[in-house]
Amino acid sequence: MRTPFQSFIRKSLRTTLFLAATAVAGSALAQITPKTIVFGVAPGPYGDLLKVAVQPGLEKKGYKIVYKEFSDYVQPNLALANGSIDANLFQHRLYLDKFSADKGLKLSPVINVPTAGLGLYSSKIKSVDQLKKGDIVTLANDPTNLARALRFLGKLGIITFKKDIDPLTASEKDIEQNPLGLVFKPLEAAQLPRTLDSATAAVVNGNFAIAAGLSLSSALKLEELDENIKNLVAVKTDDLNKPFVQDIKQVIESPEFLAAIDDPKHIFKEFQKPEWLKEKARAQAAAAASAKGKTRK
Questions:
Q1: Which helix (H) or strand (E) holds 76?
Q2: In what order do the strands lie in the sheet with 136-140?
Q3: Pairing relation of β-strands 87-91 and 35-41?
Q4: Alpha-carbon dihedral of residues 197, 201, 203, 209, nearest 10 degrees?
Q5: Sign of the torsion formed by the C-alpha atoms of 284, 290, 296 and 297
Q6: Which one of 5, 75, 162, 171 has the fewest CB atoms closer than 10 angstroms to its CB?
Q7: Which helix (H) or strand (E) holds 75?
């Protein structure tokens, strides 16, 4: 017959073993529960780019990837600043810098990615030469992309600017000559593809064009992208040195990322590559050629 003391010891031992087992199970669960990265994206191909070319690599590193889609170019940065998302991919460096300065936000770029440029699209004409006096051309109404669209039209010779203006902040008031007498209508960037039924032409950001089913090759003209208007992954400045940010960068710099981008079954092959990726592709091609030459010997 057990004494009260023996019963107490047995009960205490069972409790201790139970707690120990629970702690071990909890620890094991924590080790297999993936870390989560919430990406903010706008409609269009960049969410797909992340899913196809970035997510697999991050999952191998133990992350769970969640996407939050925004319908405009304002909310993704506000959400990043307030911690609702961990990173976003929808904007270029000029927009990030101006938005951050205007709103007093501390956001930073991580790395550029392949980007679809602006295009001049139309369902009414077949070439820029067919534009005529009074034709309506729609373009983005946010200051950064408005200036970008006007610069694009300037490079096409459709308009000219006054002297000594800042091309990064150009607006309609900075236009000096509009020989065709075109009527410019700034609208929300996401709405621009819908205007092709009524306007003669529209200057549409690549992501919104693709989201609306427009192929890049169908544009009357496509923008040649400067490095500072190629899209990038952005995070809060305070997060720049955190492991999850370094892991994102590492995955994007990996050979697997380049292979996914160059896969002809994906639309990303038509995108303009950032300089770092062009250099990496050139180096890989040179290495492959060298190895092939050695094999022949």
A1: helix 75-81
A2: 183-187, 136-140, 201-204, 119-121, 221-222
A3: parallel
A4: 40
A5: negative
A6: 5
A7: helix 75-81
User: What are 126's two structure tokens?
Assistant: 């077949």
pTM score: 0.76
Q: Is the dihedral of CA 166, 171, 174, 177 positive or negative?
A: positive
Among residues 78, 109, 209, 235, which one has the least CA distance to residue 149? 209
| b/e sequence 136-160, b meaning 16+ C-beta within 10 Å | ebbbbebbbbbbbbbbbbbeeebbe
The 10s digit of each residue's pLDDT in 88-130 is: 999 999 999 999 999 999 999 999 999 999 999 999 999 999 9
Give the whole-angstrom CA distance, residue 52 versus residue 59: 12
Residue 30: CB atoms within 10 A of its CB come to 8
8 Å CB contact between 277 and 145: no
Which residues of the chain register pLDDT less than 70? 1-34, 296-297
